[in-house]
Amino acid sequence: MSEQTRVPASPGSPVGEHQSVLELAHRRRNGLYLLPVLALAVAATALIGSLAGGGSRRAPAAGAAARAGAAGARTKVATADVRSPTTRAVVHEGTTAAVGGARAAAGEVRDPQEAASHPAPASALHSAAASPAKAGEAVVAAGAPSDAEVKAELEQMEAAKRVAAQRQRLSLTPVPGGESIGGNGTIPIPPNVPEVVQRVIAGANEIADFPYVYGGGHASFIDNAYDCSGSVSYALAAGGLLGQPETSGELESWGAPGPGRYITVLANPGHTYMYVDGVLYDTAGRSAVYASRWQVQPTDNSGYVVRHWPGL
């Protein structure tokens, strides 16, 4: 019988059993040869995947580090005793620098008006601000006493006249070296505007003469220096119009498009400012490091997104 000829065997015959054993051994031998090949293929695939994905895994780590730095800065502000001059220096240099670095890492455009904002030197210290809600309490009392309605109305009319006269005097006497208003750097709170607007003015007054530091007011509303968007955010928060600090780029989408009757915010990716009841509130154009953010003249508004709060 030739080698090509196979003898069919019945399942129970000795020939059939011998043939089955040989075929099983043949299949097992081939399987053992394939296992190393498959293992090498799997390992090579994993290595190629790890090399290809290395860059994408490193990028989130950098973002996580930036977020961790900003979170650490917020914790530092929350736990620091800002009444101590030494602590104020640490808060001033630590939180604002950390937040400024995080914003830069996130691609935030640095304020092109920073040089015109009298950036504070490292030696400049300022006491920490109150919370925006606390600052917003310094408003003219709404309504009139029930036992003296007529008298209160007359007093409000006289107060409105005094406010108008004082604003006129302020507009004529800027501090030399810039456009900041004179006096103590604050503007009077008019009694004939909505209470929300009064609170925004009160909040703006609270930090009107604080130094400018890039990143200031972003780790926390309570800081001792504020940049352009930190300043606007603080004032808006005093009126309940903002829940957390926003960058100038984020303020481009605050509220609704167009100018407002009482409050108009102007923003672009690098700078922001606002008009409140017709008065400019801006870090750029101030007269000195501790000069007021309230300024006597309007500025060029070209190149900015115009926003307002609905109804205001």
CATH architecture of the domain at 114-308: Alpha-Beta Complex
From the N-terminal CA to the C-terminal CA, the straight-line distance is 107 Å
Strand count, sense and closure of the main sheet? 6 strands, antiparallel
Shape: globular
Query: Helical proportion?
Result: 40-55%
The named CATH superfamily of the domain at 114-308: endopeptidase domain like (from Nostoc punctiforme)
- The radius of gyration computed from the alpha-carbon positions, rounded to a whole number of angstroms, is 35 Å
Mean pLDDT: 74
Which fold name corresponds to the CATH topology of the domain at 114-308? endopeptidase fold (from Nostoc punctiforme)
Question: Structural class from helices and strands?
Answer: alpha+beta
CATH class of the domain at 114-308: Alpha Beta
Strand order of the largest sheet: 1-6-2-3-4-5
Strand content: 5-15%
How does this model look, in words?
This protein has 312 residues and is α+β, with helices and mostly antiparallel strands. The protein has a domain at 114-308: endopeptidase domain like (from Nostoc punctiforme) (endopeptidase fold (from Nostoc punctiforme), Alpha-Beta Complex). Helix content is 46%, strand content 7%. The chain has 7 helices and 6 strands. The protein has a 6-stranded antiparallel β-sheet. β2 and β3 (272-276) form a beta hairpin. α1 (14-79) packs across α2 (85-105). The protein starts with 13 loop residues before the first helix and ends with a strand.
